[in-house]
Amino acid sequence: MYPYSFYSSDNNMMRMLSIDLRDEAYFNMLYNRGFKYIRQYHVKDFKKIVRDPTIGCIVEIFKIKDSACAAIKSEKGQHIINKSCYF
Question: Where are the domains of the chain?
Answer without folding.
Answer: 6-81
